[in-house]
Amino acid sequence: MKLRFVHVNQYLTPITVKPHVHNTYELVYYIDGQGISNYAKKTVPNLENGKFINYTSSIANPETISFQKNECLLYPPGFVHDEQHLQPCQLVAVGFTSDDIPIENKPTVYKDYELTILKKMEKIAKEFQEKRPFYNKKIESILTDLFIDFNRKENIPSQLEQYNTIHYARTYIKEYFTTKINLEELAASTGYSPSRFRVLFRKETGFSPKEYILNKRLDHAKTLLETTQLPITEIAFLCGFLDYPQFNKFFNARAGMNPKEYRKRNKKPTISPLE
């Protein structure tokens, strides 16, 4: 688990939160109030790290879910959604990423009959408000504990088995994404056919295996362009491309500008060591 944000909000009158999207999971606990949330059926692909987008238009043909007091609403990354609070409302919202625990890949409502989720969310709010040393690590620990409980209550061995195999594939890709990965061999190593592997991988990550690899290469390229003085031709090689033209074409298509322009706009200042 990696913490991205915490919001502790209280709305004194009914309010509508306009359509928006995160590139993180968002878990919202409603301490009080009730309402509905509309969300788009398809996710927004290739959101950059830390990206948050507000939408001025309404969501076309949305799915709708309701929420009320002592319920928890989970939004996976990339789902455009709104919130329509029909009553005064108090809530705690947490944004996070996760690579090590299975989490629902569609908007989900958790009912907190025993108020065990509430106790954990109150601890998260307190840690965030007090900001004592390592508060972010403490919040990540609470979130990990919470989602372990969710998975134990679901108790679906086949889903967990699928998660473990896809988690292995994701870990392998993270280690070797700069090399040429044979996806058929990777599928075979998980025990699935290539077509079944693609379906399960997309279900778990929101991307096909090929898209996932390309996204990793893009993120790595951006990091090197922002934080190093390496020649762009060398960065192309380090990101798994055979030559600069191939890298330039790829980067242009996905980032909307060439690598040189991206570096010019996003270069981080170099910090000199203390003498």
Q: What can you tell me about this protein's structure?
A:
It is a single chain. The chain has helices at 116-130, 135-154, 157-176, 183-190, 194-205, 209-227, 232-238, 244-255, 259-266; strands at residues 2-11, 15-22, 25-32, 34-39, 52-54, 63-68, 71-75, 81-85, 89-97, 108-111. With 275 residues, it is of the alpha+beta class. It has two domains: 2-154, Jelly Rolls (Sandwich), CATH 2.60.120; 159-266, Arc Repressor Mutant, subunit A.
Q: Short description, anyone?
A:
This protein is α+β, with helices and mostly antiparallel strands and 275 residues long. The chain folds into 2 domains: 2-154, Jelly Rolls; 159-266, Homeodomain-like (Arc Repressor Mutant, subunit A).
Task: List the keywords.
275 residues, alpha+beta, Jelly Rolls, Arc Repressor Mutant, subunit A, 2 domains, five-stranded antiparallel beta sheet, globular, disordered C terminus
